[in-house]
Amino acid sequence: MNISGQAALVTGGASGLGEATARELAKLGAKVAVLDVNLELAQKVAAQINGVACKCDITNTDSIAAALEQAAAAHGPARILMNIAGIGGAKRVVGKDGNAAPLEDFAKVINVNLIGTYNATRLFAAACAKLDPLEDGERGAILFTASVAAFDGQVGQQAYSASKGGLVGMTLPMARDLAQHGIRVCTIAPGLFSTPLMRQLPEPVQQSLAASIPFPSRLGKPEEFAQLACHFVTNTHLNGEVIRLDGALRMAPR
Fold first, then answer.
1. How confident is the model over 33-43, as pLDDT tens digits?
2. Are 156 and 101 in contact (CB under 8 A)?
């Protein structure tokens, strides 16, 4: 699919990997809707890329539906969905106090990262499936954002790893399911990237994490994630695949 002129949706588009992806899409000529729970930040990014900002909570169906409607009114029907919204969190199953980890904490991460991504995807796919086909019968492209934690989860990352592992496991069946509608699905599993959350860590900690990456021994750049995300859109034969983007990193237990 040629990105230029297409309407695109980016969840979590107000910061980090989502912001970088929104900017890369706009640079390539897409009409970008920045979907985020933080409307103020989304408006700032959207203003800089001539896009539209939509307040969106991916765990709330009405919120997603309203955002899709707002984006369509501004740019027309979208053919590209970049699912990048997500949250982190780490907690040991048995805490230092000897108590079991709160179930609510586990459920929250699963609800946002896995169920929220599915929620946004199903609503987008239903609308996209009604569009006229392009070359090769293609109608749309959907990206999931997993993590290397889906494969190399560390101590305390049960919820995060499970949520990202769920996205990995959902990739192929979703691609097979939507093939009849000409909609492709792929997943990127990023490693350690220089995001706002990462930059909150002390500099020595960031340097130590970067040194653990075989090559290049530095944190990933958000624009490198964005470039791969956009390549997925333009390479029509990429479908049903999970791609690690991690500099050959394999996470240690802790």
1. 999 999 999 99
2. no
